[in-house]
Design goal:
With 365 residues, the chain is α+β, with helices and mostly antiparallel strands. It has twelve helices and five strands. The chain folds into two domains: 192 residues, Lambda Exonuclease, Chain A; 90 residues, no CATH class. It binds iron/sulfur cluster.
Length: 365
């Protein structure tokens, strides 16, 4: 699959850090098994949506029960979005040209629905790691701009609706803005940053967007950003106060992720012959294992013992075995979600705060 240099999917990164584009242009892209799974899910979803809309009679068999159900859910979601519009037209996997604002940029809208007045982009996210919101989503805004350029001569569009559908997290989110707001953002924010990125100009800026950058392990800006914490000017007294601890917490996740990236990169380099002063590569700890499991089973059985342990499948494996619908039908009443372990998170996190001992004490008094 070819990608634009300034791709919509990476736009959050290059809008924050424009020079990262040229810095990483020729760096290797490590496509993961997760990406391959996402590509397969998108082809299945595309095929199902096209057959739902009557655009094809071909049917692609999906052998993965969960993927089959998740892609069914996606089709239902798109159908629901269409049902609230009058005489909607739907375009599936529609390629759109976004180069009016971003040089040589194009993108593909998973589902694009248009009816008079409204343009609606639906984006299927098959990942289950990070929940993605539609509000303020740069990728969707760029798709919407491309779609607007393509269809504004045919439809009178005043409202842009953008949805993320993330079935594996049971998550969907929709954001609506006026076309004027979208065009203002395109002219005032997107186009200037895209121009800088294309020309390799602008300021390097580190942040949570770095985790998707191919330079994340070696980038000097990211190192400086994280090492700022190590240089934190701790004043007497000998213990940290709450303000200082807040400052550390605010950067802790990013710091841990940066250190992990640097360690993994350095190990890969060391294994290919690079040496780092004061470090050597050794064998990690390992556990004993059987050399031949079948022989172990035969030997233990012959000695009159049962070599197997019997345990119930975990929820994920059981869902994969039964499929989501059957799982809910058979086991829905036997599932509970215990209270999660308390976690300290930034105020921007959407989960409601839980009562702490301090608040309980205040209530009692
Ligand atoms: S790692 Fe972060 S700061 Fe460095 S180039 Fe990439 S996005 Fe920019």
């Amino acid at each position: 699959m070819s990608h634009a240099l300034l791709s919509p999917s990476a736009s959050h990164r290059w809008l924050e850090c424009p020079p990262s584009v040229r810095l990483t242009e020729f760096m290797e892209d490590k496509s993961s098994a997760y990406a391959d799974e996402g590509t397969l899910a998108h082809s299945i979803a595309e095929n199902k949506l096209k057959s739902y809309l009557g655009y094809t009679n071909d049917f692609i068999e999906c052998e993965d029960t969960s993927m089959n159900e998740y892609t069914d859910d996606y089709v239902t979601f798109v159908a629901e979005q269409m049902s609230v519009l009058e005489n909607p037209s739907a375009y599936v996997e529609q390629r759109v040209d976004c180069s009016k604002y971003v040089p040589k940029c194009f993108g593909t809208c998973d589902a694009l629905i248009i009816s008079d007045g409204v343009l609606h982009i639906c984006d299927l996210k098959y990942g289950s790691g990070v929940k993605v919101d539609a509000v303020g989503n740069d990728q969707l805004r760029i798709y919407a701009l491309g779609a607007f350029e393509m269809f504004s001569c045919l439809y009178d569009i005043s409202t842009v609706r953008m949805s993320i559908f993330q079935p594996r997290l049971s998550h969907s989110d929709t954001w609506e803005i006026s076309i004027d707001e979208l065009l203002k953002w395109a002219n005032e924010v997107l186009a200037p940053a895209a121009k800088q990125a294309w020309n390799g100009e602008g300021e390097f800026k580190a942040g949570d967007h770095c985790r998707f950058c191919k330079a994340k392990e070696m980038c000097r800006k990211r190192a400086e950003y994280n090492l700022e914490l190590a240089r934190y000017d701790f004043e007497p007294p000998a213990t940290l106060d709450n303000t200082e601890i807040s400052a550390i917490l605010a950067k802790a996740d990013e710091l841990v992720s940066w250190v992990t990236d640097v360690k993994e990169y350095a190990l890969r380099q060391a294994l290919s012959g690079v040496t780092y002063d004061g470090f050597k590569v050794v064998e990690g700890r390992s556990n004993r294992k059987y050399t031949d499991e079948n022989a172990v089973v035969d030997t233990v059985k012959a000695a009159g013992f049962d070599p197997y342990e019997h345990s119930v499948l975990g929820i994920t494996a059981m869902t994969a075995l039964l499929g989501k619908k059957k799982f809910t039908e058979l086991l829905g009443g036997l599932i509970e979600k215990p209270q999660g372990k308390p976690t300290l998170v930034p105020m921007s996190d959407k989960r409601p705060a839980i009562n702490t001992a301090n608040e309980d004490f205040k209530e009692e008094n």
